[in-house]
User: Which sequence fits this backbone?
């Protein structure tokens, strides 16, 4: 007659539980998708930015590079980088605008984010943080290629200027490739 100690049965159950959880985590991690993309954004200031001292662009078409991390489920993260050759948010020269979003949905989606504008003519080369809201529609055109249409609202995107505190809207389109 063999006698099983409680410690051994506990170890076996723990081992089985760890294998089960590890398998679930591993399958979720393998279901994650990474996407890189390129597109264009059309931005428009919601207020008139006429100023004799500056030649500010109130609207324009700019390229955007993006990266998405889509783990299994409905939440995903996106990082964008816009390049403004004529400035943005009060910059009169070229500027970059990195932005990060937390999104929810698949196909139709929405989310919130934050960004800054980086330019040589800003104090410390970085603008104040502006906050973003996005809604969009992403759909596959080929197995690893998707197309994305989106609309964005940026609160305080021109707040670096003393005389202005304008928000802006952006309409965007991007092509993304799954890695």
Assistant:
């Amino acid at each position: 007659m063999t006698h099983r100690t409680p410690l051994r049965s506990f170890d076996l159950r723990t081992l089985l539980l760890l294998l089960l959880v590890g398998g679930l985590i591993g399958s979720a991690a393998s279901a994650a998708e990474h996407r890189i993309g390129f597109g264009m954004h059309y931005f428009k200031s919601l207020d008139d930015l006429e100023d004799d001292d500056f030649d500010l662009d109130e609207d324009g078409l700019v390229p955007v590079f993006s990266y998405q991390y889509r783990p299994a489920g409905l939440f995903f993260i996106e990082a964008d980088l816009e390049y403004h050759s004529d400035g943005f948010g009060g910059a009169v020269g070229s500027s970059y605008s990195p932005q990060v979003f937390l999104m929810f949905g698949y196909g139709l989606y929405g989310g919130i984010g934050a960004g800054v504008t980086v330019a040589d003519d800003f104090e410390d080369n970085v603008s104040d943080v502006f906050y973003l809201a996005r809604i969009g529609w992403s759909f596959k055109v080929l197995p690893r290629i998707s197309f994305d249409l989106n609309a964005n609202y940026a609160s305080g995107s021109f707040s670096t200027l003393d005389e202005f505190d304008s928000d802006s809207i952006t309409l965007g389109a991007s092509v993304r490739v799954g890695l």
Q: What stands out?
A: The longest helix spans residues 6-30. The CA atoms of residues 50 and 56 lie 7 Å apart. The chain has two domains: 1-30, 32-178. Residues 1-30 form one domain.
